[in-house]
């Protein structure tokens, strides 16, 4: 038995040396992948925008003057607080109107987010507004302008504290269609 083991060991060593001297190698594990022009992302990346819900069902222009885009609802469906850091408001650039105010409120408790006078397409850096985690009571966002905005379509981009964004487009009706008078 001893002789058989010695013979096997000597044979394996000789075979190994022979392949090494000749240049043969045997791959134990081998894999080749070729990818040109592709991007691979692993994992699930969550950000604040995934949990910011924007409801524009009843968004409308105020019935008195058409100067306010009102009743846009925002809620946080996530487990962590979300901060609205900036808001970009865009509309028909042929209009000479300026946005003058953005208010975020919980029904009758308004909080001024931003005040000024800017044309369409400007990013407005307001007072950070925190939407508390899992507070499903909607907050209402109102956008006020210096002239009548009837006939405009609005693009609103919420820029959140983590840098993520949520964008919506609103083509408002009058407020009477949602049973609210502004």
Sequence-ordered SSE layout with sheet pairings:
Elements: H1 2-22, E1 52-55, E2 60-61, E3 68-76, E4 82-90, E5 99-106, E6 109-118, E7 122-131, E8 139-145, E9 154-160, E10 165-170, E11 173-174
Parallel strand pairs: 2-11
Antiparallel strand pairs: 1-3, 2-3, 3-8, 4-7, 4-9, 5-6, 5-8, 9-10
Question: What does this molecule look like?
Answer:
- The chain has 182 residues and is mostly beta strands.
- It has a domain at 51-175: Immunoglobulin-like.
- Helices cover 12% and strands 41% of the residues.
- The chain is built from one helix and eleven strands; from the N terminus they run H-E-E-E-E-E-E-E-E-E-E-E.
- Strands 1, 2, 3, 5, 6, 8 and 11 form a seven-stranded mixed sheet that branches.
- Strand 9 (154-160) and strand 10 form a beta hairpin.
- It starts with a helix and ends in an 8-residue tail after the last strand.
CATH A-level architecture of the domain at 51-175: Sandwich
- What is the rounded distance between the termini? 99 Å
Helix content: 10-25%
Task: Report the strand count.
Answer: 11
How much of the sequence is in beta strands?
Answer: 35-45%
The low-confidence runs, each spanning 5 or more residues with pLDDT under 50, are none
Rg from Cα: 31 Å
State the major sheet.
7 strands, mixed
Shape from CA axes?
elongated
What is the count of DSSP helices, taking H or I runs of 4+ residues? Answer: 1
Task: Provide the structure class.
Answer: mainly beta
CATH fold-level label of the domain at 51-175: Immunoglobulin-like
What CATH first level of the domain at 51-175 would be assigned?
Answer: Mainly Beta
């Amino acid at each position: 038995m001893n002789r058989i083991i010695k013979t096997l060991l000597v044979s394996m060593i000789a075979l190994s040396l022979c392949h090494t001297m000749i240049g043969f190698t045997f791959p134990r594990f081998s894999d080749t992948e070729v990818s040109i022009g592709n991007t691979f992302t692993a994992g699930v990346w969550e950000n604040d925008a995934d949990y910011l819900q924007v409801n524009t069902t009843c968004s409308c222009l105020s019935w008195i003057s058409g100067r306010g885009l009102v009743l846009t609802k925002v809620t946080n469906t996530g487990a962590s607080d979300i901060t609205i850091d900036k808001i970009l408001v865009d509309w028909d650039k042929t209009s000479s109107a300026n946005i003058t105010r953005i208010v975020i409120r919980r029904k009758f408790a308004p909080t001024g987010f931003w005040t000024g006078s800017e044309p369409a397409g400007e990013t407005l850096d307001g007072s950070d507004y925190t939407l508390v985690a899992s507070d499903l009571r909607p907050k209402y966002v109102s956008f006020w302008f210096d002239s009548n905005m009837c006939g405009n379509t609005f693009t609103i981009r919420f820029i959140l504290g983590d840098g993520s964004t949520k964008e919506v487009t609103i083509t408002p009706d009058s407020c009477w269609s949602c049973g609210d008078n502004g």
